[in-house]
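Anyone up for a design puzzle?
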């Protein structure tokens, strides 16, 4: 995917308040830790009245774009959305865009750790008997920043690895405990926060986004001054 920036001149756009389109605390921590800066970050928890945007796109990029534009229009705020997940080659690309609900649709208020475990168990069950060298996989993260009027920025990051046959590590979330990174010799769940951010798919996408976001905010500030 090509990273792109579009400067918005509308005086009604917020300058340094950005909504992160998720209620997932793990994602929120990673995004804030990586981007930081002179920005007031809000999450969907700050807008309980806003109706959920359905993630029914065919690709990660499509879902990220749909969430960013939908929540930006609903709140009037610049919105940063991501769609990310696990792509397993031996499963024909599954779970893919269905990563969060691979073992079934999640209900509101459901135990996230229990859902993560069920999703991992399904992947491991489907890979039973598949040799280690055929268990190649990657995490993919697509980020989209949108104003209520248009898409502003888009970036993508990936992390290559292998799916091991049982979970290892207690950190992270999602499929982290079964995703092994050969060059490090650990699963993502065995990494500390800084170590994870240095190599993760989301970290890679955020590193591409950060200079573009800084440029965008600086240009907008210049327009207002």
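Challenge accepted. My sequence:
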């Amino acid at each position: 995917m090509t990273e792109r920036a579009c400067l918005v001149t509308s005086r009604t756009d917020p300058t340094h308040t950005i909504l992160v389109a998720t209620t997932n605390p793990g994602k929120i921590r990673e995004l804030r830790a990586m981007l930081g800066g002179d920005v007031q970050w809000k999450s969907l928890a700050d807008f309980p009245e806003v109706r959920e945007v359905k993630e029914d796109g065919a690709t990660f990029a499509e879902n990220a774009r749909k969430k960013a534009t939908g929540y930006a229009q609903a709140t009037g705020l610049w919105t940063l959305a991501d769609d990310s997940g696990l792509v397993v080659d031996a499963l024909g690309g599954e779970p893919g865009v269905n990563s969060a609900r691979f073992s079934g649709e999640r209900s509101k208020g459901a135990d996230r750790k229990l859902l993560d475990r069920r999703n991992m168990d399904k992947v491991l069950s489907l890979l039973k008997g598949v040799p280690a060298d055929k268990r190649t996989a990657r995490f993919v993260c697509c980020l989209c920043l949108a104003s209520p009027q248009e898409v502003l920025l888009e970036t993508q990051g990936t992390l290559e690895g292998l799916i091991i046959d049982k979970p290892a590590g207690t950190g992270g979330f999602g499929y982290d405990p079964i995703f092994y990174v050969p060059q490090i010799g650990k699963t993502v769940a065995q990494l500390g926060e800084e170590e994870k951010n240095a190599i993760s798919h989301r970290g890679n996408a955020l590193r591409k986004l950060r200079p573009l976001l800084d440029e965008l905010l600086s240009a907008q500030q210049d327009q207002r001054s």
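A detail worth pointing out: Residues 4-217 form a domain with the Maf protein fold (CATH 3.90.950.10).
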